[in-house]
């Protein structure tokens, strides 16, 4: 489930509020808030659309997890999904990397 | 030549609501809904698309990667593509529909390439078009939908249909969750593309898929087909949401003590996993994937690895606990019954596309993966959008129709009992999640579940109207409940095992039951039987 909006990185663009398919976030006058964490379906799409790598979705779908943000910032987890699918400036060449055609029919 | 798109018109509405006049209203903004909206708009229709979440991220496709039943127009390849699935699907497919879906999917996938979808190029320089990356695909479809002049309402779940005095569907109404107000669209035709129902099981991207469109359509009198084909379960890490059954084709499945689960496999052995899970935990390790396959998996669906990378599990070396999450009619093949080539339903003005519609025509009683569903979404979306636009044009000017709201459950004022949506959803899940009820079916267990579900329906029918804050959840719960009842009533009617539908009391496929099961009704659920096209032809020839 969504666990973190890193206020140090967030620019209050509210993209996450718009794109979340289950309407988990609420706008505020500043950084959005995780208003309905229990509605999160752990689809990771907010992370994918966040241009600042300010979000972190924990892979645990059914239970909230305590997250140490300081430690998390030192890993490459935040933004890792965006880089993997080629949605950052430095990784655009990955968008055509899909090799599913080699895996089908197994 | 630039064609100026016709836009839906926003009309006056009292405070607290917005209203639009359109030719075609599309409910749902996944693949089927966006293809329907684009194709209706291209026929000159004024189109509104309302999505429960955000068109572009909403639904099972956006969050995942999906195969596409894309086959080059080579007669031998096409023949093989149709033939190799017929047995799995229990011979309920219709060759004519398979052929037209293959044609349309080929054509529309090539249009996607022209619009800029970054299909991969293989070593021989050929563009490979049998797979789509969900986020990339649906971001592009949102863009195309906007470019064709469609008005998109995001975070705007539809809650009930509007009907005219003759019972024809003429719009819908719902709420705008982020504006805290109501929306109404008066339209000449409506396309239901709200997806299937996965019962809030958290199978990837599916929690917006609660059967809402089924309930609304049923309230307008629509029928269903193949609702017994509604019990696929997908493999995921026990703690996670990412279901990607394809990759588990390289897995070894083990019990707690490390011994291999006999017969367990991702393809053709999932029931062994379900039976083992009834006894205790089951673990997987993708130890059959060599380095090359591992690399291909990583680039083909990066989000598969997020749950592992973020918990320090190496899925190729480490054992991790797995579970089976119910996919219901999202990966099942049942849905709204289609009555003609334009994907019209049995109700005037109402069309169905994608997972909301039955996929028996191309899949029969089984889909192995997303491939056929993706092809169906593209094709049925195209036909439903065009069909709805043509129907709207034929209707012409119809000012001043008196429309009424068709919502029932959660809208009726009854003072006796409050509506409790959270309890309702849980009660439905208790009947549809257990493998011993839904995966492995048997008459007395189905009858027990149905008795409880029918009682729950009676209960919510007696409940008071849901509060404004609860209305969406109440309607979702009612939709899940109605879906479960069509599923199990259909499952009882099919007294054999065929496709994904397995009956412990009728373990064999029965040639005399090579037919379709129709279902419908709300207070009283009914089923009946329709012959397969081949049987109908044979009878006509006699």
From TrEMBL, chain A:
PROSITE patterns: 4FE4S_FER_1 (PS00198), 4FE4S_FER_2 (PS51379)
Keyword list, A-Z: 4Fe-4S, Iron, Iron-sulfur, Metal-binding
Matching PANTHER family: ADENYLYLSULFATE REDUCTASE, BETA SUBUNIT (PTHR43687), BLR5484 PROTEIN (PTHR43687:SF4)
Gene Ontology molecular function: any one: metal ion binding
Gene3D superfamilies per UniProt: 3.30.70.20
Highest taxon of the lineage: Bacteria
Pfam families according to UniProt: Fer4_9
All copies of domain 4Fe-4S ferredoxin-type, residue ranges: 1-30, 31-60
UniProt-recorded name of the protein: NAD-dependent dihydropyrimidine dehydrogenase PreA subunit
Record flagged with keyword DNA-binding: no
Automatic annotation (TrEMBL), chain B:
A UniProt-annotated Pfam family: FAD_binding_2
InterPro entries: FAD-dep_OxRdtase_2_FAD-bd, FAD/NAD-bd_sf, Fum_R/Succ_DH_flav-like_C_sf, Fum_Rdtase/Succ_DH_flav-like_C, SdhA/FrdA/AprA
Record GO terms (molecular function): electron transfer activity; flavin adenine dinucleotide binding; succinate dehydrogenase activity
Segments forming domain Fumarate reductase/succinate dehydrogenase flavoprotein-like C-terminal: 438-519
Alphabetic keyword roster: Flavoprotein, Oxidoreductase
Membrane-traversing stretches: none
Key word Flavoprotein present: yes
Top-rank lineage group of the source organism: Bacteria
Residues annotated as domain FAD-dependent oxidoreductase 2 FAD-binding: 23-229
Keyword S-adenosyl-L-methionine: no
Residues annotated as the enzyme's active site: 270 (proton acceptor)
GO-annotated cellular components: plasma membrane
GO biological process: anaerobic respiration
Protein name: Succinate dehydrogenase/fumarate reductase flavoprotein subunit
Organism: Bradyrhizobium macuxiense
């Amino acid at each position: 489930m969504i666990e973190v909006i890193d206020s140090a990185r967030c620019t209050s663009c509210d993209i996450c509020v718009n794109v979340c398919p289950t309407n988990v976030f609420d706008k505020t006058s500043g950084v959005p808030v995780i208003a309905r964490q229990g509605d999160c379906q752990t689809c990771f799409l907010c992370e994918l659309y966040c241009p600042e790598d300010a979000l972190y979705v924990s892979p645990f779908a059914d239970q909230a997890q305590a997250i140490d943000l300081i430690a998390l910032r030192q890993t490459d987890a935040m933004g890792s999904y965006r880089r993997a699918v080629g949605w950052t400036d430095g990784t655009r060449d990955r968008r055509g990397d899909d090799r599913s055609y080699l895996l089908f029919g197994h | 030549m630039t064609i100026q798109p016709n836009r839906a018109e926003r009309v006056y509405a009292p405070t607290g609501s917005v209203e639009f006049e359109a030719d075609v209203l599309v409910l749902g903004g996944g693949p089927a809904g966006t293809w329907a909206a684009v194709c209706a708009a291209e026929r000159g229709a004024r189109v509104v698309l309302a999505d429960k979440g955000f068109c572009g991220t909403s639904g099972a496709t956006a969050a995942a990667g999906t195969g596409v039943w894309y086959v080059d127009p080579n007669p031998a390849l096409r023949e093989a593509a149709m033939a190799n699935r017929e047995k799995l699907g229990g011979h309920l497919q219709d060759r004519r529909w398979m052929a037209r879906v293959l044609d349309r999917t080929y054509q529309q996938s090539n249009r996607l390439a022209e619009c800029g979808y970054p299909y991969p190029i293989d070593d021989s320089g050929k563009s490979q078009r049998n797979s789509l990356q969900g986020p990339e695909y649906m971001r592009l479809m949102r863009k195309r939908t906007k470019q064709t002049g469609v008005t998109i309402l995001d975070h705007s779940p539809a809650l009930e249909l509007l009907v005219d005095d003759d019972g024809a569907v003429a719009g819908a109404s719902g709420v705008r969750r982020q504006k805290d107000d109501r929306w109404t669209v008066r339209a000449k035709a409506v396309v239901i593309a709200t997806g299937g129902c996965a019962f809030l099981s958290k199978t990837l991207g599916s929690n917006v898929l609660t059967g809402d469109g089924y309930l609304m359509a049923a309230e307008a009198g629509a029928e269903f087909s193949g609702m017994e084909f509604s019990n696929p379960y997908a493999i995921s890490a026990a703690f996670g949401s990412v279901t990607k059954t394809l990759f588990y084709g390289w897995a070894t499945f083990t019990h707690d003590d490390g011994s291999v689960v006999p017969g367990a496999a991702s393809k053709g052995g999932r029931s062994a996993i379900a039976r083992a899970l009834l006894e205790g935990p089951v673990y997987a390790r993708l130890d059959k994937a060599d380095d090359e396959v591992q690399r291909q998996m990583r680039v083909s669906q990066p989000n598969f690895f997020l749950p592992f990378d973020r918990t320090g599990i190496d899925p190729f070396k480490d054992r991790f606990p797995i579970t089976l999450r119910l996919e219901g009619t999202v990966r099942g093949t049942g849905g709204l019954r289609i009555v003609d080539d334009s994907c019209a339903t049995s109700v005037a003005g109402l069309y169905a596309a994608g997972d909301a519609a039955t996929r028996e025509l191309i899949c029969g009683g089984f889909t192995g993966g997303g491939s056929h569903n993706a092809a169906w979404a593209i094709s049925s979306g195209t036909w439903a959008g065009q069909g709805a636009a043509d129907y709207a044009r034929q209707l012409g000017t119809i000012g001043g129709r008196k429309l009424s709201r068709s919502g029932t459950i959660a809208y009726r004022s009854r003072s006796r009992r409050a509506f409790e949506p959270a309890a309702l959803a849980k009660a439905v899940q208790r009947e549809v999640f257990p493998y011993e009820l839904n995966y492995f079916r048997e008459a007395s267990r189905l009858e027990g579940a149905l008795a409880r579900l029918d009682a729950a329906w009676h209960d919510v029918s007696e409940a008071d109207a849901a509060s404004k804050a609860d209305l969406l959840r109440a309607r979702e719960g009612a939709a899940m409940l109605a879906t479960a009842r069509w599923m199990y009533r259909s499952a009882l009617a099919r007294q054999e095992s065929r496709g994904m539908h397995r009956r412990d009391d009728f373990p064999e496929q029965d040639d005399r039951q090579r037919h379709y099961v129709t279902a419908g009704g709300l207070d009283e659920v009914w089923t009946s039987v329709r012959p397969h096209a081949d049987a109908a032809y044979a009878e006509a020839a006699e």
